[in-house]
């Protein structure tokens, strides 16, 4: 039987959170989604602008319109906004008695905006005793537990166990807000904890993850899974959705996740780049953590090390430009030919202009890591087909555009590396990166299995060379 799942929540016109995320999540996990709106929220990926709450009588009308006609297998409660709305929902739950009720005690959005009336907290606490699963994030757990927000997983487990005991129900403890490299979640009852380990995806596309997880849990429980089994499945799906979020290109703040990422493998090659990008998550996490990148971002990087890096990068770009020209020569269309030719020229002009502004004009010798990277690119260009060449070229675009986009928040006119930060956060560079990704996706679509494997190997190797390139300046004595 296909579970009929009702979301009672607020809206998000950009489709990332609230009932929109709920309906997508319910559908993605095999349920039939329905929705009753509690509040209309003018929000986007950057924040909440306004909240409009229709009269409470209209909430009752909506709830009864559904329950008078449809047999409901599970209910997910999201943004309930204020005590009068909670009273209406609570009364309706007592009368209709849905078999499964999941409460996401929504209080604050990722942007920091309040989504609940301060006086409603007591009503939410009371509602906790009447549901089957509560899914608070770390700040919400602290409010419900009457404590300060946990800073460690062990502390959070203690708070969740207390909440499970006081409310007499099950708590899904979420590790998203903890400052750790991993991202565990757990099913916590008064008598024990089942932890489901998970890795943390280094991304800002996490808008609506709480809404999505709670709706997924309601849907999976209504399909017959136990809470721990439902969490294993929901978490695997959600991590994939988070990983694919960036390719949606929705908004300029914390973007949404891609709820339907599991539906796309039937498109051969489509999303190929996203797949290999995800395969290099670990390497990119090491780039983020390395001394050079941290120092570049906060301005503490030693100037001599930066100049050495730039000198190596100028040598690298001269060779990179030759390989871009080779891609242009092999391109199957005039448009792609022109695109790569333009990139080859930019590598020699726009990017090296930045280098010249910092360097003294002295001639430098390529270091071992520079030679290793350019040798790899020339080897692919010498023997590989067009698809393999563009795949090997891609990490240099994508990694710098990604770093530029994420690091620009640290930039200011007096930042010692202002020009570098500005060059790679340039929207034109981001646009060129998207074109390179689209071309590589198309090339992967036309490639056979073996050629796609070579593309993948070339992409991964280039990404490892990128990491070595950033490690080299600080490894020198
Ligand atoms: N960067 C991330 N990588 C992987 N999983 C994440 C990440 N951020 C959040 N999650 C997961 O998303 C879900 C929601 O978590 P959390 O952010 O704690 O709640 P909320 O979205 O309600 O603030 C949890 O399953 C959490 O583990
Ligand atoms: C209408 C609405 N409901 C809930 C939220 C918060 O959603 P959540 O899943 O906790 O995601 P973040 O906003 O924390 O990313 C919302 N924003 N809007």
TrEMBL record:
What GO annotations for molecular function exist for this entry? Answer: hydroxymethylpyrimidine kinase activity; phosphomethylpyrimidine kinase activity
According to UniProt, this protein's pathway is:
Cofactor biosynthesis; thiamine diphosphate biosynthesis; 4-amino-2-methyl-5-diphosphomethylpyrimidine from 5-amino-1-(5-phospho-D-ribosyl)imidazole: step 3/3
Q: Does the keyword Transferase apply?
A: yes
E.C. numbers: 2.7.1.49, 2.7.4.7
From the Swiss-Prot or TrEMBL record, give the protein name: Hydroxymethylpyrimidine/phosphomethylpyrimidine kinase
Task: Tell me the organism.
Answer: Brooklawnia cerclae
**SUPFAM superfamilies in the record:** Heme oxygenase-like, Ribokinase-like
Q: Which reaction does it catalyse?
A: 4-amino-2-methyl-5-(phosphooxymethyl)pyrimidine + ATP = 4-amino-2-methyl-5-(diphosphooxymethyl)pyrimidine + ADP; 4-amino-5-hydroxymethyl-2-methylpyrimidine + ATP = 4-amino-2-methyl-5-(phosphooxymethyl)pyrimidine + ADP + H(+)
InterPro entries in alphabetical order: Haem_Oase-like_multi-hlx, HMP/HMP-P_kinase_dom, PM/HMP-P_kinase-1, Ribokinase-like, Thiaminase-2/PQQC
Q: Which CDD domains match?
A: HMPP_kinase, TenA_C-like
**Keyword terms of this UniProt record:** Kinase, Thiamine biosynthesis, Transferase
Q: What does this protein do?
A: Catalyzes the phosphorylation of hydroxymethylpyrimidine phosphate (HMP-P) to HMP-PP, and of HMP to HMP-P.
Enumerate the Pfam families for this protein: Phos_pyr_kin (PF08543), TENA_THI-4 (PF03070)
Q: What are the Thiaminase-2/PQQC domain coordinates in residue numbering?
A: 291-474
Name the source's superkingdom. Bacteria
Residues annotated as domain Pyridoxamine kinase/Phosphomethylpyrimidine kinase: 12-258
